[in-house]
């Protein structure tokens, strides 16, 4: 004989035959597969790459991978062909217990571009658990006075499977006294009983042995058995009866230990000792005998531990009331305890980093990390929302139920903020709400977005001429706020030609230190100002760079001795004829000399060296004019011939000099006249020479006046130009005077000009000396400084 729980579930039984066949579907942004539990290693689950629309040939290059949350690696994917297969044994009952739905959630991640897909693999139940009774033997004591149709509760079997596989059918071995009866009072509780169909006679049959068989609805069917031993008792023929056959109680899971639950009450129609009752807990489903405590005298039930909704939501207590008759009679009832959820579990946050550090040039929308949240509570207590703090260029985007992506929502700059410390807060919907946090450190990766920069756009450098080769003249320094190789700066010259020669033949720059070296001695007389650019470039890709301008002023040194000009430039002395009757102060000759230097180094003075062993000379030389003139009347005692040695020296340090020798012949008055007459008779020689000398003096005078005027006008124009704009790059060679007021240096600088001091011969006395100023007065100088500048011999123009 048997009883079935399956009812209208035949259609579901037909579906179970297809458990070994996996299926997939795409919906709500995810792929769904199903696979039976206990499937062998390598069992095919699905073509995950094909179902997601991915190219199989691109799986390896796009770093195709699968991530499972909080689970062992039950499933694995072949990165070559995108096939999902079973990796290890899956026991549905171990994985999900008696939950009606058991799924493994996977995240499929591919890069280039980054994409995240959600895959749900449902684990289908198979009939791998046989029904089990709580004991191998159940004993029943039934009085012979029991009337037909009396019911005797039995402990049913349980099956760890779910669905059709857990639907049990009971069968009882053939007998003439009992049949099975199943009473269903609710979806969660079903009572199995023995129904007496024929009166018992203890004298005829004192003990009955039956076999109770439980069969599940799986294919193939599995069974479990229990031995029923029924003892037929005599005498006490009234059972205790409870006020209710079922007591229903609802409790919050946080009730304290020792809390009173309910009081069951039974009565017995017998008298005396046969109506004295004693209560006992016969069974608790699921089996937790230590969780409840029953007072055997009063029937009060108390909590004897801690309830946990997440562990079990429902308990069924079987209570017996036994009288003290002989034999004792027993009454039965059930207490159904429903556990209510409270918000006692904080959310859990799991973070999977993907793209760290984040590059500065990462576009908005870049996925940085995957975040999943969960809460063991149910209802509103298990509904979790996420938020991100502090405010910044990041945001959270919900991709699926309880799954979020941390996404870049703006621009980042490593030089401003090298790293962000983010806090993800998960808050449930309970009252009061519980929350959990997870900290994410998002580093910013550097890109080469900053060029090296110099402190100044232009540097002014002063270098003395005649420097040794390889002399360090300046150091340029550029800084780059980037990091690592993007901040590694190298220096180089911006090549150009200086006249007929390349710039690299004059100077070089060290690629790492930025030190600038002069490769050869510089000559102020050839090169007064050297302007060039130094380039600074970083090692990033692509490299960035910037230039800085250098103005190198070559300062003059006294490295050129004065040079005496003809006619007194030769080794042989030049003879000058002088009449003894000339007046005091008569100019006998004029020494002309030039100096290639500038400033004080080119300021010449003349000195007449005394003749050894001679008395006081009747001649003198002008200190700055070079004119040799008489200091007194000439006498016969002075001799007929005198050799004059003139020393020409500059004002440099150290002083350099040159000498000129003049032979003076003294003539008597008659000789002077004859000489004059003789000279007058020779026009082709002396007259032509004197005429030519006069013309030359006039030419030199005109050239000198024009040069001085041009120098003044050019100086004023350059000063105005330099005050209005930065100096242009170029080379100012010899013979091109410039005046530069360097704001960076804070003082005046100069460049040299070649000069000649010229004079005529014979009777012409008008000659010119021109000196270029070393430190010209600044336009903003005071009146006193201007007056002192006017008194400076270097600033004078003297006419003799």
Automatic annotation (TrEMBL):
One function term, GO molecular function aspect: calcium ion binding
Q: From which residue to which does the signal peptide run?
A: 1-29
Cellular component annotations (GO), alphabetically ordered? plasma membrane
Q: Where is the composition biased (Basic and acidic residues)?
A: 782-794
- Stored SMART domains: CA
Q: Where is this region: Disordered?
A: 774-800
Q: Does the keyword Transmembrane helix apply?
A: yes
Which GO BP terms apply? homophilic cell adhesion via plasma membrane adhesion molecules
Provide the membrane topology annotation. Single-pass type I membrane protein
Recorded protein name is Protocadherin alpha-11-like
> What organism is the protein native to?
Phascolarctos cinereus
